[in-house]
């Protein structure tokens, strides 16, 4: 009897010791988990907020970029004299109706210039185009007019009240108009401040924090804290609360920097985390404020629930462990062996069930669920991998097709010994939107082209395939490259291709006379390198990009090639190669590279230009295709 009592006492001690030991481990585990999870949750919250900031920035940048692109196209049409008078009003009316983000458009000329139209503001009211005249004694002193004129640069303005147009707060994109090398006025496109505010106030995930939009001088123009909007700036708050940290964050914002930082000052943002990033288009900044209480709310609740559940579980464990400890070993061993077989990949293993222990039944059900889920996961992973491989195969096949459409560089001349040609095409991805092509139209006429589609991926590659096919199919039907370009433009417009902005240089060479005829549709300049190491830059463009306006009038130019002249053509992947400091390679560096060439041939010329661009640029910032085509005219064909 005494021995039985001692055995029971020892059993109780073992049970109590094991329970207390497990309880201690659980408490330590909960503490460590809380510490580790706090860092994870902070990182996850930071990533989530950063994604939200970038998503809003991308949405706003998309609208601002479309406004800027429309402004540049209108300016080009005005400066080139493509539209005047009533045509301009029709184009403005169409632009305002098709772009609801643009509240009004203004064309303002220098009052001191004689015979210029008066400054006018256009906006749509009840579907009708309304035109207001600006006071010439006032508007030249407005920031939206004066700053771009003085700086000679395109600018977004600070918010201001538009009395002559929409009668609301707006921000204006002003772009100078140039005639004969002098600034003669400003083209201004306006967007209502409320449009930008709506874009960052309708996101369903804003419950995670407070969204702020600041101008490039730190003024709040949108906030879920209504008292801040247009009344305060980040520097005025920093001054009011004497917060140097908040002032430094404001400086980072107006200098276009991004960051994540905790705010610790004694103000309304105390114990908040702020995530901010710039809007590249206008220099404004978007920020999200998130309190630490919000970040760790779920963690604290989870810790509390976990602690309560653990305490209850161990109280029950202390009661039932004595009764179950001896009887659980056998079915647990069987279950362990079955789980090991499942872990080794045998998903057909039958998990043994025990009718004696509820815990083992639940554990068995969990392992069965895990086994089935793991089997489904592996099967889904297999299917996903197969689908991914199929897609990659198709992309590689499309890349192969695209490369096969490009003429190959060969040592022997395919056309005539009076020409030597070398081309380079390096897509930014597996497939790209750049193209070069050349072929003989007849025995005496040689056609060449270099082009760039606005866009990337399969759609851009398909567009380029259509462009190349159309040029080859229709090249013999036209006498001049501008006629061929006009036909290509109508083809792109009529087919409503998604990537329909195509810049291109098309040229014909008369192999007998050496006469070069060409047209430039919105492309970067071409260069003629002479035998004496001098070069000529031909920067004139004869039309906008193709695929925008149907029935576009396209001009052209011609010149006489001398023996050994090289025609050098590139796409903007060269000129817009970006360095680590975010500077572009540019036309000037391209000219310096061409000027330094010594007795080159087309291959060495093309490789020298590519090498110079690569040496200058940061490979991580190469977002555009690179294309180079060099044609040497050796001598006339006899």
What does it look like?
- It is a single chain.
- 45% of the residues lie in helices and 22% in strands.
- It is of the alpha+beta class and 638 residues long.
- Among the domains are: 205-291, PAS domain (Beta-Lactamase); 346-405, no CATH class; 406-633, 4-Layer Sandwich (Phosphatase 2c, domain 1).
- Strands 1, 2, 3, 4, 5, 6 and 7 form a 7-stranded antiparallel beta sheet that branches. It has a 5-stranded antiparallel beta sheet with strand order 9-8-12-11-10, sandwiched between helices.
- A hairpin with a 5-residue loop joins β8 (210-214) and β9.
- α1 runs antiparallel to α7 and α10 crosses α11.
- The longest helix is centred in the first third of the chain and has 78 residues, at 2-79.
- The protein is globular, with a radius of gyration of 35 Å.
- The model is unreliable at 1-12 and 202-206 (pLDDT under 50).
